[in-house]
Amino acid sequence: MAEKTVTAKQQEVQRIVDALAKAIAQHRLPPGMRLIEAQIVESLQANRNHVQVALQRLAMQKIVTIEPNRGALVAQPSAQEARDVFAARRAVERAIVEAITPAIMQQHAERIATQMTKERAATSSSDRRAIVRELSEFHCMLGEICGNAVLHDILDNLMVRSSLIVALYQRNDVPSCASDEHQQVLDALAAGQREQAVELMIEHLDELEGQLALHQEQNAEVNLREALAER
Predict the structure, then answer these.
(1) Contact 134, 114 (CB under 8 A)
(2) C-alpha closest to that of 227 among 21, 46, 12
(3) Pick from 84, 112, 133: which is nearest to 186 by CA?
(4) Phi/psi of residue 157, each to 5°?
(5) Residue 151 above 70 pLDDT?
(6) Number of other residues whose CB lies within 10 A of the CB of residue 33
(7) pLDDT computed for residue 12 by the predictor
(8) What is the pLDDT, as a whole number, of residue 217?
(9) In this protein, which residues make up the domain named HTH gntR-type (predicted)?
(10) Which domains does the chain have, with CATH numbers?
């Protein structure tokens, strides 16, 4: 019985996490917006304790910030922080791509093929979170297989921050990433054309940054109940 209760609680907390994360990812809850527990309880017909756990989980994921005397707010990376993160990604991912040889590509051929299959399946679906997850995983995979543990660790941190920035700032009318652009990078690497692969990766990251609405006004009033309504 206890095990079933714990499982039910975990599922309920995850439901709340998913609802809030989806609203943030779709820009229905803008950066800096205060997340009032009572309104979330009402909007999602949830238990207050479960809402508090969900907010703590989102805070651990750096999607939400919890401040003394203010409570929970949607995380608010600045536009300059977003630009800095992508500038850092260009430097780090250039080095990662330069480190990947055709031999490395052959060694990890099965993993690469599996990842691309997952990407195509995700991008052919309407599950935005799955799309973001799989397309982000491509970059993490290259960091892992390049053979430089320091570059890998740096990229992992940058990808966490990038995911938050994309969720908060990306325009809804464009995809977060393109699987065919990933394939072009892989093809160049497999052929030993590392300079071409670097050029393709930099163009890809430039495109991703260009999809961010970094000049979008974030001060408009938003109704939390309406934002959390299922869409």
Answers:
(1) no
(2) 21
(3) 112
(4) -65, -45
(5) yes
(6) 20
(7) 94
(8) 45
(9) 10-77
(10) 2-76 (1.10.10.10), 79-210 (1.20.120.530)
Query: What pTM did the predictor assign?
Result: 0.66
Tokens 């430039």 label which residue?
206
DSSP state at residue 108 = T
CB 30 within 8 Å of CB 222? yes
The pLDDT of residue 221 is above 70: no
Compute the half-sphere exposure of residue 81: CA atoms within 13 Å on the CB side of its CA: 13
d(CA 138, CA 123): 13
Chain position carrying tokens 């995983």: 137
Find out whether 207 and 182 touch, Cβ atoms under 8 Å. no
Can you tell me the mean pLDDT for 162-181? 71
For residues 178-186, average pLDDT: 90
Q: Helix 194-210 crosses helix 79-99 at what angle (to 10 degrees)?
A: 160
Q: Is the dihedral of CA 201, 203, 206, 207 positive or negative?
A: negative
Give the Cα separation of 168 and 48 in Å (integer): 25
Residue 176 has pLDDT above 70, yes or no: no
Q: Which two tokens stand for residue 209?
A: 């940054």
Per-residue DSSP letters for 5-73?
Answer: HHHHHHHHHHHHHHHHHHHHHTTSS-TT-EE-HHHHHHHHT--HHHHHHHHHHHHHTTSEEEETTTEEE
Other beta carbons within 10 angstroms of residue 72's beta carbon come to 23
